[in-house]
Amino acid sequence: MLTPKTRRIALLFNANKIFDREIIAGIAAYLSSTRTAWDLFLEEDFRLRLPGIEGWQGDGIIADFDDPAVAAALAPSRIPLVAVGGSYENVADYPAEVPYVATDNFKLIKLAYEHLIDAGLRNFALFSLPEAQHNRWAQEREKAFCALAARDRVEPLVYRGQSTSAPSWDEAVQAQIAWLHSLPKPVGVVAVTDARARQLLQACALAGIAVPEQVALIGIDNDPLARMLTRIPMSSVIQGAQEMGRTAAHLLDQMLHGVCVGATRILVPPAGINVLASSKHAAARHPHVMRALHFIRQYACQGIKTDQVADYVGISSSSLKSYFRQELGTSVHDEILRLRLEAATSILEQGDCNLADVARQCGFTSSQYMHSVFKRELGCSPRAYQERSLKTRSGPQIGPASREKQELANDDELFFRSLQG
């Protein structure tokens, strides 16, 4: 059996960003599932650096074209290239004569927007980024949001805010709080990234704005780091970024084998939504219950008890228990436990971890108690839940992204004929 020729491939991405990390993971998944032999060129800190790239002697490049500097630097290159980035409303904005794999910005926003509609909201806002060439994808998401709002004849409330830095942090947060106070309530807010959503959750906490009763919030990226840094579990649209990486690798692999793909353009839809507490809006409730829920969502994993919640609300424990039964049909304790369980399952879904650490992090008094709660509520142990969720993640995908995957598994000739036809 012939050993496949090893190709030298440059990946021009910034793995500080979750989107870029997921693209790289998708490329790695493609390589591990095929006989493709690539020697990958990446900077040691996984960040792209353009100086000298024009002199790099290799066989192919996959690059992030959301950064206009990357597109400009690679314009004179004659090395086989596949570009990755966001979709554009105007087809003239796509790079010419370059195969391009895009995240579908319109579908990302549409999925988040319609999720908020399904939650019963009637006011909608978008937290974006300042206009800049390197933020073109954010402006495309603004266009999608405004188009959806126009379709539904509602006012598109868009706020770009500032790019945050240490000197401007306090000023940026105060401006976010002022914007939040100006919005009609209740309101559903789509943030163009999880990082922006996390900032807004912090601003809500500082301003005493209840999430999701007054502001229901959803981000984009499903970034586990952003989720870990928020008090309230954050909903997020899951981009099909790994699918994009696999698709880009497949395109480049075919180019290296002499297949002409031309200026092929592939839009990859989102994979779904990770729905957590931040967007689970419900109809207005008794103010004592709303205030209690706001406190519980922030501190459930810190070992709080019913008495502490009642103290925060300013009423007796018995009164709070009565309000909870009337409004929610459950107890304060059960609501605290539900959020601890939600936090624990979220951690377990990420991979191997120490169960005692998970129990402590999520506010359970012991790993044994967490085990009993899992058995009672989910019918399985924490470890069994983790194994089942990891198996589901590694198995066939469900939804729009799976259809893209099936197309990639087709015969190569048919695949490219379908792209060009």
Going by CATH, the homologous superfamily of the largest domain would be Response regulator
Instruction: Tell me what portion of residues adopts beta-strand conformation.
Output: 5-15%
Approximately how much helix is present in the residues? Answer: 40-55%
Please give the largest β-sheet. Answer: 6 strands, parallel
Protein architecture, described:
The chain is globular. Strands 2-1-3-4-5-11 form a six-stranded parallel β-sheet. It has 421 residues and is α/β, with parallel strands linked by helices. It has 17 helices and twelve strands. The protein folds into three domains: 7-102 and 241-271, Response regulator (Rossmann fold, 3-Layer(aba) Sandwich), CATH 3.40.50.2300; 105-238 and 274-279, Response regulator (Rossmann fold, 3-Layer(aba) Sandwich); 287-394, Orthogonal Bundle (Arc Repressor Mutant, subunit A). The protein has helices spanning 18-32, 68-74, 105-118, 136-151, 169-182, 194-207, 224-228, 241-256, 287-299, 306-313, 317-328, 332-348, 355-361, 367-378, 382-394, 400-408, 412-420, and strands at 7-12, 38-41, 60-64, 81-86, 100-103, 124-127, 157-159, 187-191, 215-220, 235-238, 265-268, 272-274. This is DNA-binding transcriptional regulator. Residues 290-388 form the HTH araC/xylS-type domain.
